[in-house]
């Protein structure tokens, strides 16, 4: 693995940081989230036209830049520093890869160039609150999360050659403003039960979208209701491996989210360090107290560890499972688990950094006027949407067959009982009390 960034990648980072720093301060963020779209349309146009951000990972043949997950992760890291509200994640990280992988030539030719230029935004709509499940981040996505049976979720029915959708999806990221919805729906009844993806255009009859009040206003969510909506099947046939594609997109999405969380936690730490150098207590800056130094040092270590994990996951996503698993990771830990593990590490770092920012800012850190609460809300919201952390790690362990390997080797968790199932008697096999070995330390009672 080559951990060094190329000159082009460094230029993406530098240019994006300059633009975001200039046009997306805390006041601008708070103003942008209160617009109907939930983001600054002028800033989004600048990101698309000047930097080509939404088209970074789209092939050049469709008007994109032709880069990979690493560049997209670097861009998201810079946006995460300022908590920039934008449809980038929903459009370029979730929807566009699905179009590239499953769409027909006509669908890709029509939609991807518009996404690459920023003229079209898109969103992935999954039923209920199962986005993390649909992306395979916290468990297997082979079940009926899209709406199994005859009711619930979103149902798709083919009638006279036309697909129609019925149902409702909650927590659709940027779903209230997206010009295109990629909807996951259940079809086939009990005989051929499966999940397929459908395209729903803006203004379709029977489509009702409502922006919801969310914990993190910088990542707006919507409720999407589908009332006999005419839809277009994504792809040429109805036998595509949708769960497999969603899981692959989910790993890349986790990588991008991890980089975004690293940027947010790094900025929260920077702001806190700046503040403790200025705030005085007992005639001296509180940053000079050893206890404060220790707390911030712990945060710094967490942020750097999360950054390393995110960068590795971005490299692994671009390198592919064969190269990523060859001498660069523990056995069984290929690129399929790197994204989820990096996201768990990054969310943990962001929660810690945001909590310390609120605490060390004192009374002002709890107020709406200060930006510290924005980072704390982002940490909490992301864990609710894509976690929690312990389930992300458990899923990675399950994919790597760690539990199966431990069982095969005969390792078992301590039960507090002897191997025979009887309570230990404290005697040796001969029936005598064991004698202490003077060369070994005795256990503390």
Automatic annotation (TrEMBL):
Pfam families: Acyl-CoA_dh_1 (PF00441), Acyl-CoA_dh_N (PF02771)
Highest rank taxon of the organism: Bacteria
Record keywords, A-Z: FAD, Flavoprotein, Oxidoreductase
Key word rRNA-binding present: no
Cofactor(s) listed in the protein's UniProt record: FAD
Domain Acyl-CoA dehydrogenase/oxidase C-terminal per the UniProt entry, residue ranges: 256-398
PANTHER family linked to this entry: ACYL-COA DEHYDROGENASE (PTHR43884), ACYL-COA DEHYDROGENASE FADE28 (PTHR43884:SF20)
Renumbered residue ranges of the record's region Disordered: 406-445
EC identifiers of the protein: 1.-.-.-
Similarity comment: family membership: Belongs to the acyl-CoA dehydrogenase family.
Name this polypeptide is given: Acyl-CoA dehydrogenase family protein
InterPro entries xref list: Acyl-CoA_Oxase/DH_mid-dom_sf (IPR046373), AcylCo_DH-like_C (IPR036250), AcylCo_DH/oxidase_C (IPR009075), AcylCoA_DH/ox_N (IPR013786), AcylCoA_DH/ox_N_sf (IPR037069), AcylCoA_DH/oxidase_NM_dom_sf (IPR009100)
Residues of the Acyl-CoA dehydrogenase/oxidase N-terminal domain: 6-118
Keyword Flavoprotein: yes
Any one GO molecular function term: oxidoreductase activity
Top-level enzyme category: oxidoreductase
């Amino acid at each position: 693995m080559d951990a060094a960034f190329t000159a082009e990648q460094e230029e993406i980072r530098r240019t994006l940081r300059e633009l975001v720093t200039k046009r997306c301060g805390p006041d601008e963020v708070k103003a942008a989230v209160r617009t109907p779209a939930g983001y600054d349309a002028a800033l989004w146009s600048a990101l698309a036209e000047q930097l080509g951000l939404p088209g970074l990972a789209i092939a050049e043949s469709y008007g994109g830049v032709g880069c990979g997950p690493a560049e997209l992760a670097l861009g998201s890291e810079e946006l995460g520093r300022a908590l920039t509200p934008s449809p980038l994640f929903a459009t370029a990280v979730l929807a566009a890869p699905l179009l590239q992988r499953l769409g027909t030539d006509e669908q890709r030719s029509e939609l991807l160039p518009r996404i690459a230029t920023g003229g079209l935004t898109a969103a992935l709509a999954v039923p209920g609150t199962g986005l993390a499940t649909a992306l395979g981040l916290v468990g297997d996505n082979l079940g009926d999360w899209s709406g199994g049976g005859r009711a619930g979720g979103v149902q798709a029915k083919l009638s006279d050659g036309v697909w129609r959708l019925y149902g409702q999806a909650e927590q659709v990221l940027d779903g209230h403003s997206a010009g295109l919805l990629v909807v996951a729906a259940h079809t086939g009844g009990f005989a051929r039960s499966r999940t397929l993806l459908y395209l729903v255009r803006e203004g379709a009859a029977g489509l009702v979208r409502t922006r919801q009040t969310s914990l993190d206003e910088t990542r707006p969510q919507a409720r999407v209701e589908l009332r006999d909506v005419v839809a277009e099947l994504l792809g040429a046939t109805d036998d595509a491996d949708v769960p497999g594609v969603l899981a692959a997109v989910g790993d890349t999405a986790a990588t991008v989210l991890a980089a975004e969380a690293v940027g947010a936690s790094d900025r929260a730490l920077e702001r806190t360090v700046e503040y403790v150098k200025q705030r005085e207590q007992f005639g001296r800056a509180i940053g000079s107290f050893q206890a404060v130094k220790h707390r911030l040092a712990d945060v710094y270590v967490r942020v750097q560890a999360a950054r390393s994990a995110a960068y590795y996951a971005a490299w692994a996503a671009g390198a592919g499972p064969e190269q990523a698993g060859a001498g660069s990771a523990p056995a069984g830990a290929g690129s399929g688990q790197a994204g989820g593990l990096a996201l768990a590490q990054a969310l943990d770092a962001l929660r810690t950094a945001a909590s310390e920012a609120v605490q060390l800012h004192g009374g002002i850190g709890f107020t709406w006027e200060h930006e510290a609460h924005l980072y704390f809300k982002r940490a909490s919201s992301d864990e609710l949407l894509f976690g929690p952390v312990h389930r992300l790690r458990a899923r990675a362990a399950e994919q790597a067959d760690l539990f199966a390997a431990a069982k095969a080797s005969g390792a078992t968790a301590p039960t507090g009982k002897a191997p025979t199932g009887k309570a230990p008697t404290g005697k040796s096999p001969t029936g005598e009390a064991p004698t202490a070995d003077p060369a070994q330390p005795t256990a503390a009672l």
